[in-house]
Amino acid sequence: MAIRKAMVAGNWKMNGSLELVKQMSDAINDVKSQEMDIVLFPPFPLVPAMVASGVSTGAQTVSENTPGAFTGEVDAQLIKDLGATYVLVGHSERRSIYNESNATVAEKFARAQQVGLTPILCVGESESEQENGQTEQVVAAQIDAVIEKLGVAALKDSVIAYEPVWAIGTGKTASPEQAQTVHKFIRDKIASLDSNLAQGLTILYGGSVNEKNSELLFAQTDIDGGLIGGASLKAESFTAICNSAKGTV
Ligand SMILES: O=C[C@H](O)COP(=O)(O)O
């Protein structure tokens, strides 16, 4: 069974520098604690420096393919060999800008696990889907693509991040109650197939999380931490968010 643990993950997207790796790793090494996982996802070229800094490191995406003629793609084994331990799959920017389908995301999830990386499966609905009351349907389909390909047991060694697309980078956070409702839906859905696995699963919330709203979000029963974008580029904000996740799971 997976071990449910508080986690704060910082996705730098296409931002960052060697200087920021140093600054953030110094700040994180001061707030690290056994009771939670802190992971940073810098752009690929900064992965070795982040690993060397001692902060748990992940990649922001990965190829679904094994090595071959795929110009510009990065193989999961190479990411693993560099010392990274996690990879984001299905971030909404990958889905919308790079047309990644649910099926492709499931293939990336599979390839990550094949080499021993822990995938963080990102799910979430767009603004119009939310307005049309389709949140649960969209999130269920995104998770089902992985379950159909690999079986529910594959979720044991993974993390799920719920990120409503309308809350990403917009300053419009889901309310703690709104987010909790979707997190409970996700856990209940997985529990209907394997209740131990669902209880052990870490489920993160993402979308305009900052040091002012993180405490109330993380206090919700089914929210085990956050996937942080903008605020993960500022040491003071990110470490405050990390501190607010301590002792919440
Ligand atoms: O991966 C992180 C999310 O896209 C959230 O980004 P944000 O915190 O800037 O809204």
Automatic annotation (TrEMBL):
One of its GO terms (biological process) is glyceraldehyde-3-phosphate biosynthetic process. InterPro entries: Aldolase_TIM, TIM_sf, TrioseP_Isoase_bac/euk, Triosephosphate_isomerase, Triosephosphate_isomerase_AS. Substrate binds at N11, W12, K13, G169, S208, G229, G230. It is found in: Cytoplasm. PROSITE patterns: TIM_1 (PS00171), TIM_2 (PS51440). It holds the Pfam family TIM. The keyword Ribonucleoprotein does not apply. Its EC number is 5.3.1.1. GO terms for cellular component: cytosol. It catalyses: D-glyceraldehyde 3-phosphate = dihydroxyacetone phosphate. Involved in the gluconeogenesis. Catalyzes stereospecifically the conversion of dihydroxyacetone phosphate (DHAP) to D-glyceraldehyde-3-phosphate (G3P). NCBIfam families: tim. Belongs to the triosephosphate isomerase family. HAMAP family: TIM_B. This is Triosephosphate isomerase.
